[in-house]
Amino acid sequence: MKNLSVFIITLLFLSLTAAPAELKVGSYNLRTNVPRDLPFNSWKQRAPRCLEVLKAEKFDIFGTQETQKCHIDTITSIGYKAIGLPRENKKNAEYSTIFYNPEILELEKTETFWLSETPDVTGSKSWNTACPRICTVGYFTHKASGKIFVYVNTHLDHKSRLAREKGIELIIKYLKKFKLDYPYILTGDFNARPDSEVYKKISGFMSDARHISEKTLPGAKQTYHAYRADPAKRRLSVPIDYIFVNDNAVKVKTFQVIDDFKNGFASSDHFPVAATIVLK
Fold first, then answer.
1. What pLDDT is attached to residue 5?
2. How much is the pLDDT for 244?
3. Which residues lie closer than 8 Å to 39 by C-beta, 6 or more apart?
4. What pLDDT does residue 129 have?
5. pLDDT at 11 (0 to 100)
6. Is the previous residue joined to 218 through a cis bond, with omega within 30 degrees of 0?
7. Strand, coil or helix: what is 231?
8. Distances from the Cα of 222 to the Cαs of 63, 156, 207, 210, 261, in angstroms?
9. How far is Cα of residue 8 from the mean position of the Cα atoms in its chain?
10. Closest CA to 277 of 222, 224, 215, 189
11. How far apart are CA 105 and CA 185, in angstroms?
């Protein structure tokens, strides 16, 4: 009986002193490096602005969209590791990359599937999508607490509504294999407004971090700004980039759309979206 009491007290002590599984997560459409953005918004010009954001925010893990090798090389130069496959086998192909801090997180496994009727086929397309679309998945261990979670990052099609709806259905089907109390996080550029069918489908399964956060930090309302510093000149007044969590297993402490305009210039044509979360 005495040994049992000591064992219970030890367990209680360990549970009270274990490191909290708190993470800073984000979604960040980096904007492809395209000639029409010259001279001010080429990646060469924007890379220092992006690194300034990342050094200030200190994300533990974040998903990016429109990512190319030039972006990956820049961001990994400051200590992040990257996972994810290109969406097709061609030069300057885009990735839906997951970047993570290897000092905080241990990568256990990674997967990529295509948002198509043949999700295992590289470069596959369906539903009139404008281009191949992918979903990158990472299984991670939070080193300090030992807690395991799944991080999913995607970029839904910008032209085909059907492709967006079928794509999010595939992602939901993938996530449904996990138990409700298993932590999973979904980030991405959904190219979908909050009143869209896509948003309704995913919000019926997961929670928008914006709406369950204990605190919303100052920032922008919309996430796509097309390099327009003046909010009155932006076409969209609502978000299309999101962070979703299963709130059975993830608590959201803070949420923010980071307005990173300085002297009329930003790091991308989208604002980064950030949340501080706790794995329950």
1. 55
2. 98
3. 45
4. 98
5. 40
6. no
7. helix
8. 18, 17, 18, 12, 14
9. 39
10. 215
11. 15
The 3 state secondary structure assigned to 120-157 is CCCCCCCCCCCCCCEEEEEEEEECCCCCEEEEEEEECC
What is the spatial order of strands in the sheet that 215-216 belongs to?
81-83, 98-100, 61-65, 22-29, 273-279, 250-257, 215-216
The tokens for 95 are 């990735």
Q: What is the pLDDT of residues 170-192, one digit of tens each?
A: 999 999 999 888 999 999 999 99
> How many C-alpha atoms does 235 have within 13 Å on its Cβ side?
7
Whether pTM exceeds 0.90: yes
pLDDT at 191: 98
Q: Are 280 and 251 in contact (CB under 8 A)?
A: yes
Q: How many angstroms separate the CA atoms of 167 and 199, rounded?
A: 12
Both structure tokens of 164? 């967006």
Query: d(Cα 97, Cα 79) in Å, to the nearest integer?
Result: 15
CA distances from 88 to 3, 247, 260 (A): 60, 34, 31
Q: What confidence score (pLDDT) does residue 10 get?
A: 47
Instruction: With beta carbons less than 8 A apart as the criterion, state whether 135 and 152 touch.
Output: yes
Q: What is the pLDDT of residue 8?
A: 46
CA distance 209 to 203: 10
Q: What is the pLDDT of residue 17?
A: 47
End-to-end CA distance of the chain: 31
Q: How many CB atoms lie within 10 A of CB 214?
A: 11
Positions of the chain with pLDDT under 50: 1, 7-8, 10-17
Tokens of 148: 């395991």
